[in-house]
Amino acid sequence: MPQAIIAPSILSGDFAQLAVESQHIMDGHFVPNLTIGAPVVRSLRKHTNAFFDCHLMVSNPEKWVEDFAKAGASLFCFHVEASQDPGKLIDEIRSHEMKVGVAVKPKTPIDAIFPLGHKIDMCLVMTVEPGFGGQKFMEDCMSKVKTLREKFPELDIEVDGGLALETIDQAAKAGANVIVAGTSIFKANNPKEVISTFRNKVTTEQAKYSKSVE
Predict the structure, then answer these.
(1) Residue 160 designated active-site
(2) Catalytic pick from 67, 111, 156, 160?
(3) What is the phi/psi pair of residue 134, to 5°?
(4) 101 assigned to a ligand binding site
(5) Angle at CA 94, nearest 5°, toward 154 and 60?
(6) Per the confidence metrics, is the pTM higher than 0.85?
């Protein structure tokens, strides 16, 4: 059964004190990784041994593999729409000893991932248009998550965009086990409580799915 992973996105953090905010979120030992999209990994790596899930919303992601590997990235996630040869890029990422993630935008058919599903560690289904935080969760993207979970039962399936206490149930029931949340965690009165709620809901739904396919 895929593990429940809650990934606070520092896109919603205070960029004047990212290290402090990141450590504050992790102090409760609830969060195994952070999701970031800029080469601030190097400076943050000095302060923590956290798993860095690096989501690159860039063209020509091939150019950035070595830089992110040297900076200390744990997982390199690129957009399938941005690569001319995803298979070759996957091999390049693995040669730098990083895990591999592939992202799809809301309008990209999920079958673009099918040839890559057994070669990657994670698929990120964007539930907002990539680029900025605070957007509304796109529920229609959940059909992509359901399709992926049925086709690749052991794959880490991540959702990013508009995830909050009001939308976590939809994502968890669809089969997502990696939840990226920015505003709903960093702006919460009690971030640890939000993280714990997310984790419990995902774990419950993953257990139900695992039992149903036994």
Answers:
(1) yes
(2) 160
(3) 80, 10
(4) no
(5) 105
(6) yes
For 190, the token pair is: 């009690």
Q: What is the pLDDT of residues 145-188, one digit of tens each?
A: 999 999 999 999 999 999 999 999 999 999 999 999 878 887 88
Does the annotation list 134 as a binding residue?
yes
Q: Which residue reads 């063209």 in tokens?
A: 59
* 175 known ligand binder: no
Tallying the residues shown for the chain, one arrives at 214
